[in-house]
Predict the 3D structure of the following.
Amino acid sequence: MNKVMDYKYSSEVINNYSNSIKARNEKNDCFVRAVASASGSSYDAAHTYVKEVFGRQDRQGTQAVGLTMRTIEGKLQEFGQVKVKFEKLGKERITNTYKLYGEIVKRQKTVKSFIKDNSRGTYIVLVAGHAFTIKDGVLIDNRGEEFRPTRKVTGAYHVI
């Protein structure tokens, strides 16, 4: 089993990433990278899928991920050579419960806490303004993001 906060760069995990002209010309593409690394598809296939299904504009990032995920949740998605389903994790899976001054309080899990509690399976995880993949306890993200384990998880989707 991997220790908490094992890390891989998405650019090294995604099929044909280094050969992709689309990838070289993109920025704000964390959700495209998350979809590609979580599904095992190529960057180009994930890019086209996110553009068509989520309405992503080139170099602009992906807006309203949660709304679109709600409409496709549980439905088979096909792009490139892959077939996947996305299932939203409930509040109880992305929050921790604490007793504070005799009162029960729920707080968003940190990335580190989420990985610890979800060490098996593949997930696309959302934090404020960013998305990445967690696959069997390994954080797959862009360069420069690896040392931010205290970000709060705002949403997560199991990739099947």
The chain has a mean pLDDT of 93. The chain has one domain: 6-159. The chain has seven helices and ten strands. The first helix runs from residue 10 to 13.
